[in-house]
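Q: My labmate handed me this sequence with no annotations at all. I'd like to see what the chain might look like in three dimensions before we decide whether it's worth expressing. Could you predict it?
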Amino acid sequence: MNNESQTAQDKRIYNLAKDYLLDIATKQKKPITADIIEQYLVAKPRPTTLPGIFERILGSAQNANMRAGVIGGSIDGIDNLREVLCGFEPASIVQKYGSKWEPLLDQINERVHPRVRKGKELNKKAIGLWPKYCKTILASAEFMSEFSSADDFYQWVDFFYKDKRSRLALPLLLQNKIYGIGLALACDFLKELGYTGFGKPDVHLRNIFENIGMCPRDATDYQLFEAIIRVSQNAAVTPYGVDKVFWLIGSGKYYLHDIKVGRHGDDFIEYVKKLEVM
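A: Here is what I predict for the chain of 278 residues:
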């Protein structure tokens, strides 16, 4: 660390990151402005129904490694599971499938037809991504069926969320309740519900944070989560905002505007190192 305080460093890195997003857009002549970037730093409206919340869980559950391509990408979006999943009604899913993932996978295969590589068949072995995802669907349905309404669920979340000392208990509870949902995906689910006090400790942030010294090498998801919180406090922004800025650098996906600029995580790391900020 140089002579700057941690607070000053975090604030400077965050501001450099936002400016870097505009630099990328300018170099590639993409129609991305500061106002457009700000749109990604504001959480979208939260669902007002249990099916809506349940669908958000399923969206977050595929946001790991190559799941998004194998799951959502093979069926043109999670919404196409709606009919097989009883309109995303958790209690109805539990009643129809219980905890048996095999009948659910059969229904998805027969009625939704996930695309697989030519000459291949859908992997129905328990270790496959689709079987694992079906287990997550059923565990999520069982969990969400404990709530009588969206308001009931939000009251439960708010009980933990309003006190910063108990806030981290939320993703840890979800991690233990729902098969296939680790700390990172639980944080993703909560932040995408509008709980901006969470950021997802994902691969893009890990790459950048570890390589410029903003968190330890080989940090646990919890340590990376703590680093996101620290940067948000020092930069006077939300953890959600920190997440999105560095995620946009790492992924290059402006999903609200159907614009892609490519991945620039490694380039940003080299840029910061040349500036000798850390």
